[in-house]
Structure formats: C-alpha cells, structure tokens
Design brief:
Layout: E1 6-9, H1 11-15, H2 24-35, E2 40-43, H3 48-58, E3 63-66, E4 71-73, E5 82-83, H4 88-100, E6 106-108, E7 117-119, H5 128-131, E8 137-139, H6 142-145, E9 152-157, H7 159-172, E10 177-184, E11 189-196, H8 201-211, E12 219-223, H9 229-234, E13 237-240, H10 246-251, E14 254-255, H11 263-277
Length: 278
C-alpha cells in the first residue's frame, strides 16, 4: 500500500499552469495535503523570488528546495539547512564559456546577503518573473564584477542552442558543477542553470525525508522537465505530468493530466488524499 509521508512538487510545468498561475483545484488539493499534516516540498529551479509567487498563490508555507537543490529550507522564513554556492573559479569558467558561445548570462548573487540579479547592460532573455524584478537588477561588466562565489549562473534561449551549450558545458565542468537545462513553459524558453556540484532535486528531497526519519520510499514526487527525471525516478512513487518530457514519463510510476487540466490535483486526490482517508 502506498504510504506517502512527504510530497515533492515541481513548480513550472507542474504546480503552475501555462499562464504561471495555480489553478483552483490544484491549490485546494495542495492545501488539503498540508491540512492533513503531510509535509510538502516545492522542488524547483526557481530561487526565492519565484518561489514567493507560488507561496503567495497557495496561501500556505512549504519546504523549499530552491535552484535545483542549492538552497533548502523548511519554510519561507526558516534558516536554510543547505546553502551551496558555486565556487568562484568554476563560475568564472562557466561565464567565460557562455559568453564565448554567444549567450547572455545573468547571475543570482547570494540571496541570504543581497538578493540581486546581475547582468550586462543589454537585457538578456529570462523568465518573466525574473525580468519583472527590475529594482533588483544590477547592470555591470560581468567579467570585471565576478570575484566571489555566487548562487547560480543562468542563460536562456531557444531549445537547440541551449541544449547544445548545456551538453558542452556539462562535459567541461563535470564533477565541478551541475549544468541543468530545462523548459520554462510560461515564456516558451529553455533555461540553462549552473549550480554547485552535487546540487539536484532528488538529493535535496531525500535530505528533507531523512530529516524526518524516513527515506525516498515514502516520497511522492510530481514533475515534468529534465531536472525532474532523477527525482521522479528515485521517489517511492513518481508521477509525470501529461505535458512532461519523455524522459520523465519513462521513469514515472504514473502519468496524470497536464498542467492545464489539474494534473497535480489528480495525483494528490488519487494517491494521497484517498489513501489517507482509507
């Protein structure tokens, strides 16, 4: 019998719909899980700014595995128990490679000290919720500015060039950083994220489970994109959204409706709430 003691949910393409909002049925299903005392982790590539938008729509606090697991905290105002920064020399090498490939990177500095987004004067492509934070943007010469560890380096663009650069950079930085390329549905772009080595959603969610005294066998995880593959595969019960990439569907225990048709609510109602009632 399925015994879900922790629920891990991806944000983009999963919890939020294509318009970047949480549908009412989904919101109520998530709130019902929280009301039953089952811990929930938002496992996302977003940093705190993007996660805040999700929490605001839900109206409840959640555990947060941010930036693909680089930052982990039990709640919005709780000190992080994981805070992995990208080493300066590795990040500078990545920045150099991205600029040489014609990308327009932007950088999240350390959000626990100053939550700013640093970029060149030319405005790069980026998800809308990041672009909207103009008050937090800093326009600099990135190569001159970069002299300390940062949270993450990102670049965004079309699928083919982003996947090509991701593969090249992933091979170049293997063992020294994690290079993740995933689809951001709302703005129809591919987002390349570079974080410290060892940062991934699966390990982050397992850390949340271990803190509660159990393993991944009691985790249900729901996701859709490339950065969700290991999380869905390693969870005790992995769920792929109907809009998920084939790689996620291939490792999932179940496939639900897409994020335009309340797939998260379907998963919660079938395998969490119904089981809890039984």
């Amino acid at each position: 019998m399925l015994d879900v003691k922790l629920l891990a949910i991806d944000a983009d393409g999963t919890l939020v719909d294509p318009a970047d909002h949480i549908r009412p049925r989904v919101r109520e299903a998530v709130r019902a899980v929280a009301a039953r005392g089952i811990p929930i982790v938002l496992a996302t590539g977003r940093s705190l700014d993007g996660a805040d938008l999700v929490l605001e729509e839900l109206g409840i606090d959640l555990g947060l595995a941010l930036v693909n697991g680089a930052i982990c905290t039990e709640g919005r105002h709780t000190p992080s128990f994981r805070h992995a920064m990208l080493p300066t020399e590795v990040g500078f090498e990545a920045l150099d490679a991205l600029q040489a490939a014609g990308c327009a990177p932007f950088i999240y500095d350390d959000p626990e000290h100053e939550d700013v987004i640093v970029m060149e004067a030319a405005h790069p492509r980026m998800p809308g919720f990041i672009a909207a934070r103009t008050a937090d943007h800093r326009h600099v010469d990135l190569r001159a500015w970069y002299d300390h560890p940062v949270l993450t380096i990102l670049a965004a663009g079309e699928r083919e060039p982003m996947q090509r650069v991701s593969a090249e950079l992933g091979a170049r930085l293997s063992g020294r950083a994690e290079v993740i390329c995933s689809y951001y549905q709302t703005n129809d772009l591919w987002l390349l994220t570079i974080v410290a080595a060892g940062c991934n959603k699966a390990d982050a969610v397992e850390a949340f489970a271990r803190r509660r005294g159990f393993g991944m066998e009691h985790v249900m995880a729901i996701g859709d994109s490339n950065n969700d593959v290991d999380l869905v595969r390693r969870a005790g019960f992995g769920v792929a959204m109907g809009n998920a990439v084939d790689e996620v569907k291939a490792v999932a225990d179940a496939i639900v409706a897409d994020n335009s048709h309340d797939g998260v609510a379907e998963a919660i109602e079938r395998w969490v709430l119904d089981h809890a009632q039984g």
